[in-house]
């Protein structure tokens, strides 16, 4: 039996900020969900199931928050499911929801991901005291900085690349009203002069810690036909995982990421991603991950990703715009960040991205990764229904 085509008919985000002190976690998720329903012109009663995701409970210090969120998300009396794959969870959550529609288990599913990091401290939440480990592994930046160094050494990339990415993404964020950081007076020189946090990652080359939520309404062909705005259609979606550490693990370009991208392209009939994909929302928490993922996702040959960044190809008006929304570098409510990438890709092909719209975007890739670069989730969405 063929799969049911899956359409994204509703998208909602909160305005991401350092601290949403005016709402509880329940209030935060409800705000995003309400906006997604409004976009789809649907009511809570139209939703058959809810799939929710967030990163580790350690981030807010609230154990299993989903246990009390059913009411806020209109899920009382309906199936509700939580997904967890660390930082990639927003992407995996959307894929689990999409698969429920594709398998005809449910017709219309609300999917949502969130993080309210102001209620904890992600840096120290991510510095787990594992016995016999070197003690200076401070936060995600401390973990990923050596892999960035390895990339620079392997490729000979000049040390200006990271600042070019950061400057681009922060300027794109100025066009996105939901982005956390709006630094109108930032210059490339200021990025390059910002304090070094985790060598070679500077303050302006790292993501902030954000409070935020993102929600989407996914539905079948019948639901899409009733939608008030053009839907985004899922052409391919995949997840892959690998352990944090194993002999031969390539931290610069993990095999699981390559395999995940290849699977998505195969499902979507993409043979030349650089030319066939119009916009990419890629999970870049530290700026150097843009050239690294350009290679991992098959947009550039190994060792060449930084050249695409340097050439301006990934700018909003370039041939392959990367993170038109401002990306994770401008907004990082960790659990929600993967879903924001998926949602922003969908906004692009729906033609509803506002000021950060990529002209004529017909196919876009949403990408998420998490853990020790070990969980990957991606989807490719299009303006037209899938041909097969
Ligand atoms: C899979 C993954 O997602 S891996 C990534 C996981 N996430 C991280 O590692 C988070 C990395 N970031 C951090 O740890 C912190 O944001 C730091 C260290 C960069 C800054 O720490 P703090 O100064 O304590 O940040 P805090 O959240 O209190 O924010 C203070 C102000 O600085 C701003 N800010 C925070 N980070 C940044 C940044 N990188 N660049 C510019 N401004 C920033 C905030 O918006 C806030 O401004 P506001 O008061 O006007 O809203």
TrEMBL record:
Assigned EC number: 2.3.1.9
A Pfam short name: Thiolase_C_1
Enzyme class: transferase
GO MF terms held by the record: acetyl-CoA C-acetyltransferase activity
Keyword field contains Acyltransferase: yes
Superkingdom assignment: Bacteria
Record keywords: Acyltransferase, Transferase
Domain Thiolase C-terminal: 243-374
Protein's UniProt name: Acetyl-CoA acetyltransferase
